[in-house]
Design a protein that fits this description.
Layout (H helix, E strand, L loop, with lengths): L2 E4 L6 H9 L4 E5 H10 L3 H12 L5 H13 L6 E5 L5 H14 L5 E6 L2 H9 L1 E3 L6 E3 L26 H15 L1 H9 L2 E5 L4 H18 L1
Bound molecules: adenosine-5'-diphosphate (ADP).
Length: 219
């Protein structure tokens, strides 16, 4: 199963990705995580991406597409993939189609997770992450057992520099202008499924079970 996840920042794409991967052979590719890795290692690409990410703007299509293509081409053949944070523009959606055709690994579904701005701001400003283990917490909704530290790795939690209210509003504006229109792109292809990002993970899990039942009927 090859899937793209669509939706505004903070809609819960990371949580959904975790639920989707559970017990399935899926490679989770988050372009946000890939960019943060490059930034941390101060590669040429990372240094170029940094100013865009910190302002909440989109990194130029060619940089992100190169990063994604390298990752996808290296993915084991039988493993499905789960794209999170890509595509974010119409040009990226088209580049993705070309790339997937080239490597013969077509998309099976696009999952669109929606949420409103108030919820997004509450979720993102309260979000804390463990940079090494990649685990995501929330100061009130999903606090770690020991305040400020990751349950799994024990490392100190940080707030992403772009997780402040001003940058979130900017990211939301960028999302509405550039990314929301590609929901229609996948609707037109007949592979779009909508989900409600306001739900908690238990209810999302139920929606996912329905989604996989539906897919099984189609195949
Ligand atoms: P979120 O979904 O919470 O906004 P991400 O981790 O997906 O966060 O992305 C963080 C930032 O990385 C974005 O605001 C943007 O600057 C950059 N980015 C990630 N993916 C892409 C992409 N496909 N195209 C352009 N920029 C991207």
């Amino acid at each position: 199963m090859n899937i793209v996840l669509l939706g505004p920042p903070g809609a819960g794409k990371g949580t959904l990705a975790g639920l989707l991967k559970d017990g399935r052979d899926l490679l989770h590719i988050s372009t946000g995580d890939l960019l943060r890795e490059e930034m941390q290692q101060q590669t040429e690409l990372g240094l170029e991406a940094k100013s865009y990410v910190e302002k909440g703007e989109l990194v130029p299509d060619d940089l992100v597409t190169k990063l994604l293509a390298n990752k996808l081409k290296a993915a084991p053949e039988k493993t499905g993939y789960l794209l999170d944070g890509y595509p974010r523009t119409r040009a990226q959606a088209e580049s993705l189609d070309t790339l997937l055709n080239q490597i013969g690994r077509p998309l099976g579904a696009a999952l669109y997770l929606d949420a409103d701005l108030d919820l997004i701001i509450r979720r993102i400003t309260g979000r804390r992450v463990a940079p090494k283990s990649g685990r995501v917490y929330h100061i009130t909704n999903r606090p770690p057992k020991r305040e400020g530290y990751c349950d799994e790795s024990g490392e100190p939690l940080i707030q992403r520099p772009d997780d402040n209210e001003e940058t979130v509003r900017k990211r939301m504006k960028v999302y509405l202008e550039n990314t929301l229109p590609i929901v229609q792109y996948y609707e037109d292809k007949g592979i779009l499924t909508k989900m409600n990002g306001a739900k908690d993970s238990e209810d999302l899990e139920k929606e996912l079970i329905e989604f996989f039942d539906e897919q099984a009927k189609l195949n």
